[in-house]
Design goal:
Number of helices of chain B: 9
Radius of gyration of chain C: 14 Å
CATH superfamily of the largest domain in chain B: Nucleotide-binding domain of ferredoxin-NADP reductase (FNR) module
Largest sheet of chain C: 4 strands, parallel
Order of helices and strands of chain B: HEEHEEEHEHEHEHEEHEHEEEEH
Structural class of chain C: alpha/beta
Chains: A alpha/beta, B alpha/beta, C alpha/beta, D alpha+beta
Order of helices and strands of chain C: EHEHEHEH
Largest interface: B-D, 49 and 68 residues
Distance between the termini of chain B: 30 Å
Number of strands of chain C: 4
Number of strands of chain B: 15
Distance between the termini of chain C: 34 Å
CATH class of the largest domain in chain B: Alpha Beta
Structural class of chain B: alpha/beta
CATH topology of the largest domain in chain B: Rossmann fold
Oligomer: heterotetramer
Strand content of chain B: 25-35%
CATH architecture of the largest domain in chain B: 3-Layer(aba) Sandwich
Strand content of chain C: 15-25%
CATH architecture of chain C: 3-Layer(aba) Sandwich
Strand order of the largest sheet of chain B: 10-9-8-7-11-12-15
CATH topology of chain C: Rossmann fold
Shape of chain C: globular
Largest sheet of chain B: 7 strands, mixed
Number of helices of chain C: 4
Helix content of chain B: 25-40%
CATH class of chain C: Alpha Beta
Radius of gyration of chain B: 19 Å
Shape of chain B: globular
Helix content of chain C: 25-40%
Number of domains of chain B: 2
Chain lengths: ~325, ~290, ~140, ~350
């Protein structure tokens, strides 16, 4: 009930996903699960308290099911919550979320039979930072964002602007590899629009690779000077499920808890390596960073690295072993003498 | 809640003194109490400070090893015995492990004393029951010696002390002295004795119930691990003690020791600034929940 | 283990106790000469080597890091080094991407009988690391 | 009381004069992050784009990390030094919500023991407020007793009335800053009337409201309502954004570090959202997430007012705007069960 206090004005139309029909179907299915007692909780998205935002909805209350929404702002990777919620859980999953869920199952953090996956097709999510830049106005000063398959109309301060959809979607969405969940118990049957731009999806990585090692190091040094060590990147990441993170260890103290660029960089570098093979390139770490560190340029590189070296795609197959628990007799030749 | 109120409360910001700067103390002596607890005796490097330094039973200090860190310890020696200071150190973390590696003569940092102290004026003329568990004897010991050094000011004294096992009993030399002292009633218990143990067995709360000290004109002082504190309060209540008659000293994670860094609160009370000594009546509402 | 604080460049080596460490021993007992720049840390298995060790070594000012274990197939614990291999190559590649010169982090398989190989590996590592100069990665200047 | 005014065109010159005597700190944008940083002596474009900083101005007094004591291993023992920082600074452009927050933290650091590191910076700083007429949709300062165009917590208060700023002189230190300058004119009656209009309009722009009356009492009565706290904390991910970027959160951690022969004792921000915050070797009094969420809300609206007489929230809205999961403190406050519904302790 307390979600309804603020009525944010969401996007008026959205043709990329036939939203209202999908929402109806989803609510029906989720409601049934709760009602029949198949699950104890439903995890999904509800309208946020601010314009163009959504918020995770974790509920056992059937009355709240009508708050479930689907729109191009359902950013969070809800798989994050699965290990901490007891009982059987019904979870609304976009393609990338479903990969994280599968990865958690592969890592034995959750059991497949405890999870009911309600898959939804996803054509990509809107990156508000990009919209703000295009509109020249901050989020709360934008009146409307209408997302169509080929173009997006942004209305702000009486001005209307039309741009190709590729210009407002998150970078990681432009490189999406799974729009419709492969692993699901219920799927909303609706095709997703293929909106891709692989080149801009990893543009910064390509630029970094053109630099010399010294220049790259200087780049990251500068970036991690901004880091405030709020650990939002770690906390929001479904792959970071350790009970106790190495940064909290004091004996030995691997990384200083003091925020200085050296230790900030080590923290993030190790975090990225530790989630190798678990990272699904959902882009949450970069989205939540309050100081805009391009974290995806680290995680995506790692994602590509394990993809190339071990021909491994995270979260595509529940029965496959997790990357770091498996091996081939001959692989990665030439790197170790 | 207006801004004028803020200004009234705002104190002079111009004092020069840096409370975070530790004094240097030298380790005189190390006593291994149990496999994981040692007591260190120390004095200030600065002779002047040695004379001027005063504290009260129940107060604590921040000991530090430069380059390793700071940790909080209560002062376990009595203010009535001035030749040196003592702290009991349980080896559990980064700093305490480093303190366990020190030898005699080492220089460490000391800042304090901080916090409030046991209300000696309130205890004066009353019967006292000391209830301690494990390393929780350290703050009590400061008070017990303080009281024993002024024995005639107090009535009947009971000491009930327990530890997990015989080898976990701290300050055995003191326990022996107290057991021999005919003006005290000392009961020592262990959760589970070894073959040679001839004292009591069982939890402190159970032994307390059996000993059943009278609540008339009596104050009970409790210190030990949270689980012991939690189980002792109901027994004291059964024995007729009112919450005002029960005093405890609490331990929480602390960093600054002076009410600023934020983490040691129980409700609106900061253990470092408003405590560590509390009457049970003051913390009753929070204690079951967050301690 | 005597820690070497004098020779430049300084290298820290994480050696698996069953193979590489024994290999280092053999190099010693058979009087093979190799540079004394190496500070050796013994680990139970190359599978124990966390990427943290590598970065911590660099953070503490070592100019290079060597990790070494049994040859694939020879692991005392059957599969430890296979798993280590994935982790090590990922770490190596990723640090390169961050801007750590590849010479600073090196890996090798050395068995207990390869004293000569061990000496050669150390010699090569020292030479490679010397070529990229002292480790200023974590200094505030520059 | 508004007494003076200055033409907008003269602001650069005014800041320039000040910058000769002490460092002038202004809102600065780097990589899309706005924070208070040293002024480059030229650029005053922030007057056009600046709404509020991401990193609150508390960072000027309680930096994200600072050296408390530095040590150096020498042959004859340890050399210990305390960094001295007595440089004078002016923070230009602080918003009334953040200025109130500074006044709130001032109390903590002056309480009982004076905090050397905080107060040595604080006492050498003058705050110059800038009225706010473009609030975010997450701002709710009018609900926490802050007026977006007025402040008593600064030394000078500037208010935008179009081509000019009218100025309130709050402290003698602030007054002295204006004495030396010929650009400062006397405010006319018309200016003051204009200011009144702007004030009313600015207050009107704050649409987000929450009733903070009786919150402390409500919190007291639902302290043990575990269902409520579990429900509202469910989506929290326990990161440190809301606390680190809160202008009134002051919790810190102290840590030592030693690499080779050099080391230091650092102090840095800490957050009650972190599980490690209260962790002790044997147990953790706030292990569960709902306890940590409860601590944050209760500290702001119950414990702080109990101890120091004022709510420790100024409605700046940062924690709402920046939260990765849109955890909205106003909803939690508004949703508090009205009357006592106490559950048994554990």
């Amino acid at each position: 009930m307390w979600l309804k206090m603020f009525e944010p004005s969401g996007p008026t139309t959205c043709l990329v996903m036939k939203v209202s029909d999908m929402e109806k179907e989803l609510r029906q299915e989720a409601g049934k699960l709760l009602e029949e007692g198949t699950v104890d909780y439903i995890i999904g998205f509800a309208p946020g308290s601010l314009k163009f935002t959504t918020t995770p909805l974790i509920t056992e209350d059937i009355d709240e099911i009508n708050n479930l929404v689907i729109n191009p702002f359902i950013n969070n990777n809800l798989a994050k919550y699965l290990p901490e919620i007891p009982g059987r859980v019904g979870i609304i999953a976009k393609g990338c979320d479903s990969r994280s869920i599968v990865s958690l199952i592969q890592d034995k953090q959750i059991a497949r039979q405890d999870i009911v996956i309600l898959g939804i097709p996803c054509s990509g999510l809107v990156d508000l930072k990009k919209v703000e830049k295009l509109a020249g106005k901050e989020r709360d000063k934008i009146d409307d964002i209408v997302v169509l398959a080929d173009k997006v109309c942004i209305t702000a301060g009486g001005e209307k602007k039309e741009v190709p959809t590729t210009e407002v979607l998150f970078d990681h969405c432009l490189g999406c590899e799974l729009q419709i969940p492969k692993e699901y118990d219920f799927l909303i049957q609706e095709p997703a629009a293929e909106i891709r731009d692989y080149e801009s999806s990893s543009k910064q990585i390509q630029e970094l690779k053109k630099m010399s090692p010294d220049q790259r190091w200087a780049f990251w040094k500068e970036q991690f000077g901004h880091c405030i060590r709020c650990y939002a990147c770690r906390q929001v990441c479904p792959a970071c499920f350790c009970e106790r993170c190495f940064v909290e260890e004091s004996q030995p103290r691997w990384v200083s808890p003091v925020s200085q660029w050296q230790d900030n960089l080590i923290f993030q570098a190790i975090r990225t390596i530790h989630v190798a093979g678990r990272c699904t390139d959902c882009g949450e770490c970069e989205r939540v960073c309050p100081v805009n560190i391009p974290l995806r340029s680290l995680s995506k590189e790692m994602y590509d690295l394990v993809g190339e070296m071990f021909d491994y795609k995270t979260g595509m197959d529940v029965n496959a072993p997790a990357l770091m628990t498996a091996y081939e007799l001959v692989e990665a030749e030439g790197l170790i003498r | 809640m207006t801004i004028t109120q803020i200004k009234q409360r705002k104190k002079d910001l111009d004092r020069e003194n840096n409370v975070y700067m530790p004094h240097i103390v030298l380790v005189d002596k190390i006593i291994e109490e149990t496999p994981s607890v040692r007591t260190i005796h120390f004095h200030f490097k600065d002779a002047k400070l040695n004379n001027e330094f005063t504290f009260e039973s129940g107060q604590f200090a921040e000991l530090s090893i430069f380059g390793v860190g700071e940790a909080t310890f209560c002062i376990s020696s009595s203010p009535t015995r001035k030749d040196h200071l003592e702290c009991g150190i349980n080896r559990v973390g980064l700093v305490t492990n480093a303190l366990h590696r020190l030898g005699v003569g080492a220089e460490i940092g000391f800042r304090g004393p901080y916090g409030n102290h046991f209300p000696l004026d309130l205890m004066c003329g009353k019967n006292l029951v000391f209830i301690g568990g494990g390393i929780g004897l350290a703050p009590l010991r400061s008070l017990i010696w303080n009281v024993l050094d002024n024995r005639d000011k107090y009535g009947k004294i009971d000491i009930i002390y327990g530890a997990r096992s015989v080898s976990d009993l701290c300050f055995k030399y003191d326990l022996d002295t107290w057991e021999e002292d005919k003006t005290l009633n000392t009961v020592i218990t262990v959760d589970k004795g070894d073959g040679k143990w001839r004292g009591k067995e069982g939890f402190v709360s159970e032994v307390l119930r059996d000993a059943a000290p009278s609540c008339g004109n009596t104050i009970a002082i409790v210190c030990g691990p949270p689980i012991m504190i939690r189980s002792t309060f109901p027994v004291l209540e059964q024995l007729g003690f009112t919450p005002d008659q029960v005093i405890t000293t609490l331990e929480k994670r602390m960093k600054c020791g002076i009410g600023k860094c934020g983490r040691c609160n129980i409700g609106n009370l900061y253990v470092c600034r408003d405590g560590p000594v509390f009457s049970y009546s003051r913390i009753k509402d929070f204690i079951s929940d967050e301690y | 283990m005597k820690q070497n604080t004098e020779e430049q460049p300084r290298i820290v080596g994480f050696l698996c106790k069953w193979c590489s460490y024994a290999g280092a021993d053999l190099a010693g007992t058979s009087r093979k000469k190799y540079p004394s720049n190496l500070t050796v840390l013994k680990v139970p298995c190359s599978g124990r080597i966390d990427p943290l060790f590598v970065l911590k070594g660099l953070r503490l000012g070592f100019d290079g890091v060597l990790v070494s274990g049994c040859h694939p197939g020879d692991c005392h614990y059957q599969t430890g080094n296979y798993r280590a291999r994935r982790r090590i190559v990922v770490t190596k590649k990723f640090l390169e991407y961050l801007g750590v010169p590849e010479q600073r982090v090196q890996a090798s398989w050395v068995s207990a009988s390869e004293g000569a190989k061990f000496a050669q590996v150390v010699e090569d590592v020292v030479e490679n690391v010397r070529a990229v100069g002292p480790n200023n990665l974590f200094s505030d200047e520059g | 009381m508004i007494t003076k005014k200055i033409n907008k065109k003269d602001i650069r010159k005014l800041l320039g004069t000040w910058n000769q005597e002490c460092s002038v700190i202004v809102p600065t944008r780097e990589q899309g992050i706005v924070e208070m940083a040293g002024w480059d002596n030229k650029d005053i474009s922030f007057l056009d784009w600046y709404r509020n900083t991401v990193v609150p101005p508390k960072a000027c007094f309680l930096p994200q990390s600072e050296v408390m004591i530095s040590f150096q291993k020498k042959e004859n023992g340890l050399k210990i030094e305390v960094p001295q920082d007595e440089h004078k600074q002016i923070i230009f452009g602080i918003r009334p919500c953040d200025a109130r927050a500074v006044a709130i933290i001032d109390q903590v650091f002056a309480d009982t023991y004076d905090d050397y590191y905080y107060s040595s910076k604080r006492r050498n700083t003058l705050l110059i407020g800038l009225s706010c007429s473009n609030p975010y949709d997450s701002c709710f300062c009018t609900s926490t007793d802050v007026n977006p165009t007025e402040s008593e917590d600064v030394d000078l208060m500037f208010m935008d009335i179009g081509d000019e700023y009218v100025i309130e002189e709050i402290t003698s230190g602030g007054k002295a800053l204006l004495n030396t300058s010929s650009m400062i004119k006397k405010a006319t009656k018309a200016d003051i009337n204009k200011a009144k209009e702007v004030r009313a309009a600015s207050v009107d722009k704050l649409k987000k409201k929450v009733d903070t009356k009786d919150v402390d009492r409500k919190l007291q009565s639902c302290f043990n309502d575990i269902d409520y706290w579990e429900q509202v904390s469910a989506k929290c991910i326990s990161c440190g954004i809301c606390t680190f970027l809160c202008p009134t959160c002051f919790c810190f951690d102290i840590n030592d570090e030693m690499i080779k022969k050099h080391g230091a004792r650092y102090r840095g921000w800490d957050s009650c959202s972190f599980r490690s915050y209260t962790k002790m070797p044997m147990e953790n009094p706030r292990e569960e997430k709902w306890r940590r969420v409860r601590q944050r809300v209760c500290h702001k609206f119950e414990f702080y007012p109990m101890n120091l007489g004022i709510n420790a929230c100024t409605g700046c809205g940062r924690c709402i705007r920046l939260c990765p999961v849109n955890w909205d403190i106003t909803q939690v406050i508004a949703g508090l069960p009205g009357e006592i519904s106490v559950h048994s302790g554990k």
